[in-house]
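S.,

Sequence below, as promised.
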Amino acid sequence: MIVALAGGVGGAKLAHGLTRILDPSELVIAVNTGDDFLHLDYFICPDLDSVLYKLADINDTERGWGIRDETWNFMESLKKIGGEDWFQLGDKDLATHIERTRRLTEGQTLSEVTRALCQQHKIAHSIVPMTDHRVGTVVDTKDGDFFFQDYFVRLRCEPTFTGVHYKGMEEAVPAPQFKAALRDPSLTAIMFCPSNPYVSIDPILSVPGVFNALNNAGVPIIAVSPIIGGQAVKGPAAKMMAELGLPVSPRGIAQHYGNLIDGLVIDNEDVDLAEQIMATGIGVQVTNTLMKSAEDEALLAQETLNLAATLSRKGS
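The prediction came back faster than expected:
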């Protein structure tokens, strides 16, 4: 059993790579829900949908989000009548949000809704939300605090980043399947996908009970760096790290996760940093981490599994 923590495009890609080499019984993908929000009275789950669409092979690879061959009649009509159009919802994508909102309104949990959507898309592997509770990642900036989608989409990440906090997190608990996977006796490794550490992975770690469960799981925890050659492949991770004064490199990623992780996978371009990271007690695997194809995704997944196989949990 492998548990992968994921969010965003990078998380979806590595999750897809893992599904190519692991059976459905061997993988649980726990997805960030801190950036979920209510928009136009629909419940939007951007990270869950990124993973869902990727594993269903309907994702838009050019835009990096949403469904390919999308149409935009709804948004165009909404804009014409003066509606709120800063967050783009394609016509195909909108169907997911409508159905999710209907099911949630009827009393289903987010885990149940996600399972139903996976079944409809014929996805055999388990995609689970980090929690069934409603939580929200709030980005702290020098211009004030903003819910993540406001910061990321409406404000285009322009305000200076100073940190994050979470609305409603104190009442949250891990989703049942996520919690069970972390306690499964067959668990052999935990992976942090190459997702933004502050707004994709940290929200999962902040769900009450998750950090301690990971720390006490007794299996290697491996992170894949989302930074290559001083830049984020996609998203604001590099900008956030720079504004916090951290090295914009895999070394900064290692510094952020600290003793929680046992290993870090870094790109060939950052090979010169391997010894510095290993000097901190973290194992390192150097490989190609830029996933341009399904083959790249599977190879990175295998390299990450290989690193986990060579390491034991610190202190165990």
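The chain has a mean pLDDT of 95.

Coffee later?
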